[in-house]
Amino acid sequence: MPPDFIEVYPDALDAGTCAGLIQRFNASGKAVRGKTGSGVDVSMKNSWDICLNDHAEWSDVVGGFNQVVMAGLKRYLRKYAHAVLAPLQLKVPDAATGELRALDAEAIATIDDGMLTAIITKVFRPGTINIQKYIANEGGYPYWHCELYPKANDNAETLHRVVLWSIYLNDGFSEGETEFLYQQRKVAPRTGSLLIAPTAFTHTHRGNMPRGGDKYIATSWILFNRSEVLFAPPPAAQAAAARK
Hints:
Largest sheet: 8 strands, antiparallel
Order of helices and strands: EHEEHHEEHHEEEEEEEEEEEHH
Protein name: 2OG-Fe(II) oxygenase
InterPro entries: Pro_4_hyd_alph_FE2OG_OXY (IPR044862)
Structural class: alpha+beta
Low-confidence stretches: 237-243
Radius of gyration: 19 Å
Pfam families: 2OG-FeII_Oxy_3
């Protein structure tokens, strides 16, 4: 059976941390109506959100989420190497000769963690993170949508998205799945599990209404670095150019 490119990593975040984040969210007083790309429309998305990157007091949580997602992304790329290889040709120094050699899927699958982290840092960057609350028997994101789209006055940020991710912070309810249209797959929330999937229309999805309890998730994207970062010469070359 061919892969659907939807991966779920159980227990990516421990249950105690998830419970603490829910408590912190509810005590913060910072939640606002959730937006889509076109603004607030509760017929499309009915949630209460905090964009963590907008609030300095949440910086510790942003760092913690990004560490968890980095670990998941490494697992994802080892399975789906062409998420990074198809858009770009990557070369690294050969350990024996020092000459640059092109990486292939087998190399990505077996490369050491340090080198894979360096590749990810060069190619990708984290997006802004939302914690979202969907109220029982009321909230949800029923509109079928994808995460890759043009947006005015956004420096094409939404077109740089490669994969989406969600961490489910609780599971004390029924339904409330993340449902993927073309894959005909529903991912049931499980406390601490990490979902990673592509952002394009092929993975059109929606968030179903939770029944019998509120649903909390953290969600964001992994984006390509901008071209000035991706194609910047290495520091040695920059220094040599500056001396000329």
